[in-house]
Description:
heterodimer; A: alpha+beta; Thrombin, subunit H; 5 domains; six-stranded antiparallel beta barrel; 38 strands; disordered N terminus; B: Thrombin, subunit H; Pdz3 Domain; six-stranded antiparallel barrel; 6 helices
Amino acid sequence: xxxxxxxxxxxxxxxxxxxxxxxxxxxxxxxxxxxxxxxxxxxxxxxxxxxxxxxxxxxxxxxxxxxxxxxxxxxxxxxxxxxxxxxxxxxxxxxxxxxxxxxxxxxxxxxxxxxxxxxxxxxxxxxxxxxxxxxxxxxxxxxxxxxxxxxxxxxxxxxxxxxxxxxxxxxxxxxxxxxxxxxxxxxxxxxxxxxxxxxxxxxxxxxxxxxxxxxxxxxxxxxxxxxxxxxxxxxxxxxxxxxxxxxxxxxxxxxxxxxxxxxxxxxxxxxxxxxxxxxxxxxxxxxxxxxxxxxxxxxxxxxxxxxxxxxxxxxxxxxxxxxxxxxxxxxxxxxxxxxxxxxxxxxxxxxxxxxxxxxxxxxxxxxxxxxxxxxxxxxxxxxxxxxxxxxxxxxxxxxxxxxxxxxxxxxxxxxxxxxxxxxxxxxxxxxxxxxxxxxxxxxxxxxxxxxxxxxxxxxxxxxxxxxxxxxxxxxxxxxxxxxxxxxxxxxxxxxxxxxxxxxxxxxxxxxxxxxxxxxxxxxxxxxxxxxxxxxxxxxxxxxxxxxxxxxxxxxxxxxxxxxxxxxxxxxxxxxxxxxxxxxxxxxxxxxxxxxxxxxxxxxxxxxxxxxxxxxxxxxxxxxxxxxxxxxxxx
Amino acid sequence: xxxxxxxxxxxxxxxxxxxxxxxxxxxxxxxxxxxxxxxxxxxxxxxxxxxxxxxxxxxxxxxxxxxxxxxxxxxxxxxxxxxxxxxxxxxxxxxxxxxxxxxxxxxxxxxxxxxxxxxxxxxxxxxxxxxxxxxxxxxxxxxxxxxxxxxxxxxxxxxxxxxxxxxxxxxxxxxxxxxxxxxxxxxxxxxxxxxxxxxxxxxxxxxxxxxxxxxxxxxxxxxxxxxxxxxxxxxxxxxxxxxxxxxxxxxxxxxxxxxxxxxxxxxxxxxxxxxxxxxxxxxxxxxxxxxxxxxxxxxxxxxxxxxxxxxxxxxxxxxxxxxxxxxxxxxxxxxxxxxxxxxxxxxxxxxxxxxxxxxxxxxxxxxxxxxxxxxxxxxxxxx
Lengths: 634, 383
């Protein structure tokens, strides 16, 4: 890892001192309440200005969820989604046709009654509907006195890591009630586009965005509008290069920035009413601003060691599912760009096995007992034609596959980089310091840093923030034993990226839990901890791959219990080669006594296929020693 | 050279500016730069310290709430290969929370977690699997109460107290919440999985087999297996029981499980149910048996009340004169001499949801311009 720079060391000591000598839990508790208070202030501003928009006078059954909207002026200007007023007028007995999709221009704007219960509806007429931008501007015909509205903030001033709140009629639950709130951070700020007058085209947030929230507001910590919500980016699973830009933001909330709206509506008569000049300067944030600053700074710092890479295969692969149901899994020819972590200054890059083999070792809960599918992994890895890595300095470099680890679900790549100067072996790239394992308790922040941008590297990474949900214990039989679970959103885009703590120290490599069903956006993400990685990294750097070690035998059952007596000896496998026979009882492995297959498994942990073990066996009442070279389960 | 003097002056000025810009930074500016950098570093150190303080409180809160969170295992008798007799096999499961009430420890979970069980077990945070049994349940509202078959020994958990005030006061959109539970059996060793979120909305309604009336909606990640698990605030107060999530649509054959929309039965309802189940013993959920929708005044756009859509044959209101019928407007309900105005169908559902069968109520409704009243007792759906 990186040698700490001299300037950083005193700073780190200073911070460490601060951390150690800051006891007062009462003060800390206070800071959490302050965070909540700041959240509340923002939310108090946005709640009364968030409305539900439905076509006026259309039966409820013809409307799916209705969209959301945001009141922008006291005189009743409302911004909503481009699809506002959409309903489905399917005559009885007829099948759905596209002409049944109707769009009303008279809109029912529902204001929740926040004091009592219920709501009030107002008629609104469409002023301007923009399908391309996905917004509609409307005016309420008779707005009530004292109508609450939202002030526009500045989306150009946003930073990755800033808190953001989405509000709206999620799943239609707010049709008769106050709107639904979700909180998250600004996950990514794509480059500013020329067609939008130098503004962001979209901004992406990790706040959950669901059907019905479209058209609703996204506000910053001050409760100012920073954008209107377009939709949630679906996962585009084709793997074609042209789909890559959206793949980077799969499952993120897509938001139309307010600066882009200002640009778009500049010629409109209503412009001054819609976006009045702000009177006061932006207030300075308190605790939340401290958190957001740290998120931003730490993410940027970690991003200097997070790379992006693309994989090209010799062709598309079709493989049978590991569970053996005969279902074929197609692995596309082009994968990526996806994320990886630079772990040494001469170009070693770690990433999730999922990124190159399309299979994660942490499989679905119901199927965890299935052995890691060595055949599939092998086929995937052998099919790789070319790997291209995009380094933090923006340069592309070819890379080769060095080794993989099926136990932890890791792949090690080596990028062919030019050294910093002649006569050196190291490049000028940076790597991260590892986090202290003992300190990593459940409840700590996890920042997942992804770089799915390929050649078009952005200034900031794709960032999601969550908690360390659980440290799974070492020694259980689950494939996720000793891995760390997090609720920071993990998608295809940041899988393989870095998980860092608040101080920017590397916790481990981010990975999806399951490639198929519940892995994405389930709030169940995993971190392959650095503490486990560092044990295997030297071997991996030597080009040695880890496959689950295998004897090639079955255990004999006595009553209900399995014994360490060998039952079947599989042909051509390790046990047969070592001369073991059915009926032999294993009593010791490398001198350690074993009495159950569980003991054997525990002793095999940490051994690699290809390792040689000394078995003490009992054959015909006599103990004898046998040397066995472990095979791999295939 | 007969050049324009003003232009020459201008040129000189540019030259001077340029020269000034090209000047190597003098020591004073360098110092300024250094002090600015130092100030920035100090500001950042301050921000980091505050962020670490927040994180530390989070870790504390998580430590605290995990103690009373359990994983629930639903065992069923099934044929096991190689065995003559069927054995108890773990078929499904969920989460639960240990509560203390009337000097005893109980476990709260969802009815749908215990559905179809032959035996039940919980795994507590210390990793010990303990036998439990179903004490009682209110299936309508998805609340099941379990008890330990034998008194648990040497335990660190003391059970949380369910206080109505936890969810009735102070909870707002934006309040931070922690969900603990056993998603996808990832906490079958008893150490629960913790997720963080904020409250998204209050008083949500989900119909169906299990009714969630007045539920707390939040965006902490909740998945299959989290059912029955508790929702907490950062002070470690019990806010409710997670039971449902809104499922998104399938996209490219993949159904996202968590959508950031989870629903929890609030503590005040749980408290009401516990009063029925433990304090009073063996209570059934009250049943009014009218199906309603919200009526809106076409002119003012105001919600006016709950319009009757249908009346169940078993409804106690069926005996009222005149018998309520489709189109009538329920405007208020009186329970224990406190009258509540009904604006929406949701208001009515919320009030009924916490009342036990046999509770005396007065329902007021409007037909045309006349108001009618009915005084009576809530029924038991099963009878």
